[in-house]
Every structure is written in structure tokens, then in C-alpha cells.
Specification:
Layout (H helix, E strand, L loop, with lengths): L1 H6 L15 H23 L1 H5 L6 H31 L6 H24 L2 H26 L7 H29 L7 H29 L9 H21 L4 H23 L10 H25 L6 H33 L12 H4 L6 H16 L6 H27 L7
Helix pairs in contact: 2-4, 2-5, 2-15, 4-5, 4-6, 4-12, 5-6, 6-7, 7-8, 8-9, 8-10, 8-12, 9-10, 10-11, 11-12, 11-14, 12-14, 12-15, 14-15
């Protein structure tokens, strides 16, 4: 009788009104993963230019923006559509609005990529306008959710500040697109300033704020961060010192800014360790072991960046930012998504019929052993790409990009399996 009931159990509608429909984050995350794969393909194609340090070439810029705009920003948009309603207990964005924003942003990305690759100014201008409009639509929708929150939590504090930096990023990026097509306006150190605000403010604050909350959820200690406010202050201080030092030409401010961010990383790491990183019971979970690898990428960024700042080895910024983007930001998503996606699938498909038959557990939806191929592929790929700068090895760079591409492709397949099923254990 029970077996017959389980066999005919229907997949139902959303259980809670405090969660975005399953299709919304999955649409953004799938597109973002494809963006990262395109970025790795472009990186392999432009490997010689990257190793020579010609980061201003159109092919290199196309690869960089495939990672930052089409890849990581896309997955972060999907994450915020999902996490803001759940973590802050506010109503989600209407699915049609999220879809329209995704469509505008995706079309803009396509035109922007074509313009960077071909040098066609009309494509760059139209695509850049689409990207800016898509981000502004996103900001309007998620800021509206944040305003529903009566009291600010740690998560809301980090999210709000990250969104402010995203706004500054899109303004500066729009000006850079105009300058690229018309030749003006132009100002000193425009690209480093744009990178500091985008990577340090938007990516840095959002990933650190998200990981605070998710470690408290998934770590067995369930410990809230204690040093978060000082970490937040140091991150913002680092960006301000760095940008003012560049704009005003005060050289001493840039090392001070770098030391501020190094202090923020130390405090952030201490809070993550206190939440369960390294704990024997917690780290039995392969997805959480993946997050140790992301912190290794952050450590590599600190080492290479410190060498670049105090050793005046400017070329080291290229592998440093690879370690930051593909290592810390990218692998953090690979790890956390393996915890979030099965929870989302269970919530939307089984929570409303809980107790009416044999339900799958979260490990049945996303098998823990499937974490190992992305973990090893992403780790070895990043290691090879960083090592390629030692002897300007073209083949190491390309092998690293292929290994990292395998990791993201395998992750995409595992995610599709988790969403489609089957999820129940055999009878």
C-alpha cells in the first residue's frame, strides 16, 4: 500500500512563499556556469597574450568579462534572488521580473562579447547598454526586497554594501565602454580603480557575507561570525585607501590598503574556522572540503598580491587575480551550490508531501561523492594556470584551463542530475 502511494506521488508546487521559484536561481546559475566555461575557452585561446601580460587586448578582455560578467556576476544574481528572501524572511522577486532582467542582461552580454572580440564599436555600445540596464534592473528588484527588512542582520549588511559597489562598478564600466568606443572620458588608473571596486567590493563583500551565513547553516557548530564588523570595515577601508592612493597619486596609501584587506582576510578566516572549517566531523562532507580549496585560492591571492605590491612585480597581478576569481570566488560557488541545490529541490518538490511516503534525503538528491571530480579538476587546473607563469608555459596554461573546464562541466552535469532525478532510493 505504501509502495503504491510512493510510486504515484506527484511533484507539487512551492512549499513556502519565502523562496524564489526553483527555475529562477537555476536559470541564472546555468547561464553563469556556461559563462565560466566560455571564459576558460577564451582564456585557453588567448593564453599567449595573457602570459605576455597584454591584458588590454580584445581577446583577453573578452575572456575576463566572460568570467566576471557572464560567469560570476550571473551566478551571484541567481544566488541573491534565492538567498535574500530565505535568509531575510522577505517576499521573493516575481519570476517574470527576474526572467525579463535575465533576458536583458544576457542579450547585453552577447553584444558586449561580440564588440570586445571584433572591435565593432556599435556592438560594444549596444551590448554595454544592455549590461548596464540589466544590472540596474537587478539592483532595483533586490534593493526593493532589502527595504522590506525591518532590522539589518550581518547578511543584509554585507549584501547591501556589495550591491552599492555593484552600482559603482556598472557606472565605471559604462564610462569605460564609452571611452573605448569614443576615446573619452579618460582618467588616470581607470582600469585598476574599476577592478578594485568590482572585485574587492562587489565580489569580495558578497562572497564573504554569503559564506558567513552558509557556514553557520551547514557547519555542525552553527556558529555566527564574531568579527564580521571589523572585517567589513577593513574591506571598505582597503578599497578606499587603494582608490584614493591611485587617484591622488599618494603611493603610501596603496600598501596601507593592501594591509587592510590582508587583515580582513585573517579575521574572515578566523570566523570561518570557528564556524567549522577544519572540524573533523564537519569536513567529512566533500562539498565542505571543496571550500577548503577555495580558501587555498584566497591564500594564493594574498601571497602573489603581497609580492606584487611590496616586491614591485606587477606581472604577478595576473595569476593573483586568477587565484582570487577562479580560486576563491569560483570554487566557493562550486562548494556551496552542492549544499544549496539539493535543499532547494527538496523544498520545492517534497516538503509539501513530507510524511506521505519514503522521502529522499539531501545526499540522495546530490550524491556526496560527486563533489570530488570538480574539487580535483578545479584545484589542479588553478595550480597549473598559476604555475604557467613561472616559465611562461603555454601548455600548462591550456592544460589548466581544460582541467578547470572539466570541473565546471562535471558540476553542471551533476546539478542537472540533482534537479531532474531520480531522487528516491530503490525500494
Amino acid at each position: 500500500m505504501i509502495r503504491e502511494r510512493v510510486r504515484h506521488l506527484k511533484v507539487g508546487r512551492t512549499y513556502t512563499d519565502r523562496s524564489a521559484p526553483l527555475a529562477v536561481p537555476l536559470l541564472f546559475w546555468t547561464t553563469g556556469v556556461l559563462g565560466v566555461l566560455v571564459g576558460l575557452w577564451r582564456l585557453a585561446a588567448a593564453a599567449r597574450l595573457v602570459l605576455l601580460g597584454r591584458v588590454g587586448a580584445g581577446a583577453v578582455l573578452a575572456a575576463v568579462h566572460s568570467f566576471t560578467l557572464a560567469g560570476f556576476t550571473m551566478v551571484m544574481m541567481g544566488a541573491l534572488y534565492q538567498l535574500i528572501p530565505v535568509l531575510l524572511n522577505v517576499s521573493p522577486v516575481a519570476p517574470i521580473r527576474a526572467f525579463v532582467q535575465w533576458l536583458v542582461y544576457t542579450l547585453g552580454l552577447a553584444g558586449f562579447a561580440v564588440g570586445l572580440s571584433t572591435g565593432w564599436t556599435w556592438a560594444l555600445g549596444c551590448g554595454g547598454a544592455g549590461v548596464v540596464l540589466g544590472i540596474l534592473l537587478f539592483l532595483g528588484q533586490v534593493i526593493g526586497r532589502l527595504r522590506q527588512r525591518a532590522a539589518f542582520t550581518v547578511t543584509a549588511w554585507f549584501f547591501s554594501t556589495a550591491l552599492a559597489y555593484l552600482f559603482l562598478t556598472v557606472v565605471l564600466g559604462g564610462l569605460l565602454a564609452v571611452r573605448y568606443t569614443t576615446g573619452r572620458p579618460s582618467w588616470p588608473h581607470e582600469v585598476p580603480i574599476h577592478m578594485a571596486i568590482a572585485l574587492g567590493g562587489w565580489f569580495g563583500l558578497l562572497v564573504s557575507g554569503t559564506s558567513y551565513r552558509l557556514w553557520a547553516m551547514f557547519g555542525l557548530r552553527h556558529r555566527e561570525p564574531r568579527r564580521w564588523f571589523l572585517t567589513w570595515l577593513l574591506i571598505n577601508g582597503a578599497i578606499v585607501f587603494w582608490v584614493v592612493g591611485l587617484v591622488a597619486g599618494i603611493g603610501v596609501l596603496r600598501p596601507i590598503g593592501w594591509l587592510c584587506q590582508a587583515g580582513a582576510v585573517v579575521l574572515y578566516g578566523a570566523d570561518i574556522v570557528a564556524a567549522g572549517l577544519g572540524d573533523v566531523r564537519t569536513m567529512r562532507d566533500p562539498a565542505l572540503r571543496t571550500l577548503m580549496l577555495s580558501l587555498a585560492g584566497l591564500t594564493a591571492f594574498e601571497v602573489l598580491g603581497t609580492w606584487a605590491v611590496f616586491g614591485h612585480a606587477g606581472r604577478l597581478w595576473i595569476p593573483a587575480w586568477m587565484a582570487y576569481g577562479l580560486g576563491w570566488v569560483g570554487i566557493s560557488f562550486l562548494g556551496f551550490a552542492q549544499k544549496i541545490v539539493p535543499f532547494m529541490v527538496w523544498l520545492h518538490r517534497y516538503a509539501h508531501v513530507h510524511g506521505q511516503g519514503k522521502m529522499p534525503r539531501l545526499p540522495d538528491i546530490w550524491r556526496p561523492r560527486l563533489a570530488y571530480p570538480p574539487m580535483f579538476g578545479a584545484g589542479l587546473g588553478l595550480l597549473f594556470m598559476i604555475a604557467s607563469f613561472v616559465g611562461s608555459s603555454l601548455w600548462l596554461m591550456r592544460v589548466g584551463a581544460v582541467l578547470d573546464g572539466f570541473a565546471w562541466l562535471f558540476f553542471l552535469g551533476a546539478g542537472m542530475r540533482a534537479v531532474i532525478g531520480p531522487h528516491r532510493k530503490p525500494e
